[in-house]
Amino acid sequence: MPDGGRLNRYWDARDTLRDESFRQDALLARESPQPAPELWRNLRAGAESGWDFSSRWLADRQSLALIRTADIAPIDLNSLLYGLETAISDGLDRLGDAAGSARYRLAAGRRRRTVVRHLWNPFTGLFDDFDWTRCARRDAVSAAAVFPLFCGLADAAQAASTAAVCARGLLAPGGLLTTNVVTGQQWDAPNGWAPLQWIAVRGFDLYGHEALARTIARRWTTMVARVFARTGRFLEKYDVVHPGEGGGGEYPPQDGFGWTNGVTAGLLHYLSDGDRTVRAADGPE
Questions:
Q1: Closest CA to 166 of 196, 136, 130
Q2: Active site includes 236?
Q3: Chain centroid, CA 46 distance in Å
Q4: Average of pLDDT values for 180-202?
Q5: CA triple 78-129-150, angle to 5 deg
């Protein structure tokens, strides 16, 4: 980063066509201004992110031909790594390895300071992705901004701002939008994804924004139940703006998916007040 701090990015060591999307990647290279190997590495890195694909990775927020995943330090990845460094420190402390615990606690602290310095966006009021090649935040409004709350990285003021912006700009009739941009990619509006609902609900609840957490949980579970009653199916992704089957992306919508089943069951348990003890134990310091 510009001040010498270190963050992580999504990356793939190969710069070749993806095996599962060979034809699509070959055709996309014909219209992309990037050299083909660079394009293919960015596509692979986008797939590595799990957000395949999203306006988060697109230079103009619209065209897959302009994907630049490897140029971006993402808020979700670095929040999760902060959480892992903290968890490893806690585990080593329980094992009596004070030196090892201190080493990972120091790494977590360094990462948190770098994230707050560079990935907190005071103009959007959210944690953001950072284009390290241009030394600029992306000004993205996305559900990735809730990962610092889920991992306990945010402070109270940042959490309150995140809650307000998400309630105003991402909350939809079926739950939390993935982003506020419509691109035709599946990790953008109008889609919502089960893992992001769970991360948002847990994150907001941990910081005391229980009303918003419960609203997201209630809207998501109501939508899933209604779609199941109508179709007999759980879905991979949902349109949370017009609650129903999601779309977009490189392949047809999929039935089933353990994350929809598991998250929906977990949120129903949360709404029944069945995990109060867990929430109290997991709260941020």
A1: 196
A2: yes
A3: 12
A4: 98
A5: 45
Q: What is the 3 state secondary structure string of 81-150?
A: HHHHHHHHHHHHHHCCCHHHHHHHHHHHHHHHHHHHHHHEECCCCEECCEECCCCEECCCCEHHHHHHHH
DSSP structure class, residue 20: G
Active site residue 128: no
DSSP 46: H
Query: Which among 12, 71, 128, 236 is annotated as catalytic?
Result: 236
Task: List, for residues 214-250, the tens digit of each pLDDT value.
Answer: 999 999 999 999 999 999 999 999 999 999 999 999 9
pLDDT band of residue 113 (cuts 50, 70, 90) is: very high
Single pTM value for the model: 0.94
On whether the CB atoms of residues 77 and 8 are closer than 8 A, the answer is yes
Least confident of 101-105, 116-120, 270-274: 270-274
Helix (H) or strand (E) holding 175: strand 175-176
Does the pLDDT of residue 279 top 80, yes or no?
no
pLDDT tens-place string over residues 79-93: 999 999 999 999 999
Give the separation between CA 185 and CA 54, rounded to whole angstroms: 6
Q: How many CB atoms lie within 10 A of CB 34?
A: 17
User: How far apart, in whole angstroms, are the C-alpha atoms of residue 106 and residue 254?
Assistant: 42
Catalytic residue among 12, 52, 76, 128: 52
57 phi, psi to nearest 5 deg: -100, -5
**The dihedral of CA 222, 225, 231, 237: what is its sign?**
positive
The helix (run of H) or strand (run of E) holding residue 1 is none
